[in-house]
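job 3f2a | input accepted
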Amino acid sequence: MTATEEAANNLTVVDHPLVAHKITKLRNDQTDSSAFRSLCQEVTLLTAYEALRHLPTEQVSVTTPLTTTEAPRLAGPAPAIVGILRAGLVMVEAILTLIPHGRVGHLGLYRDPETHRPIEYYKKLPEDIHTRKILLVDPMLATGGSAVHALDVLTEAGGTDIDLLSIIGCPEGVAAVHDTYPDTRITLAALDQRLNEQAYIVPGLGDAGDRIYGTK
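job 3f2a | predicted structure (216 res):
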């Protein structure tokens, strides 16, 4: 398999009417911050089922009211959920409802308005993150700069099994990630058309952080 084929196989865009419906509501510029936050959490929950498909399991014995049987449970250390601040926080909280025993890491990045390159201002990761499956979350996969920087940080920390979950992505962002990390699985709720001259996703939904927290 070539690197291009491997990268193509590592992109999943969730195709579900509930997800599509909620994405449409997210795009609407009349959706207020409270509703936008809730929709981000709902879309994250629906999309995370697909993103977490590769979690390892093991068979254990369990006694039901009728009998004893073998059944699967999650195996190994709890996954690490790493959110890119600030917008990724809403996704972290949603995923913790699915995996309450998960460990949480934070990466603070902002985009330079001139170069559009990420600048790191905060990092706090579980000390044993190298032993865990890692789910990196950020609502928008635009230029891919923040995602690639975060993957660099996680790889330097010893991470070897890292997936990326975003709500909206575009071809440029997907290509940027897979040019550097072709084996990283990317799961999106929607794949949009392109970036504009200001490096915003089109049609997109605007600045996710500002819309989540009502700061613009």
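job 3f2a | The helical segments are 3-9, 17-27, 33-51, 89-98, 145-156, 171-180, 208-213.
job 3f2a | closed
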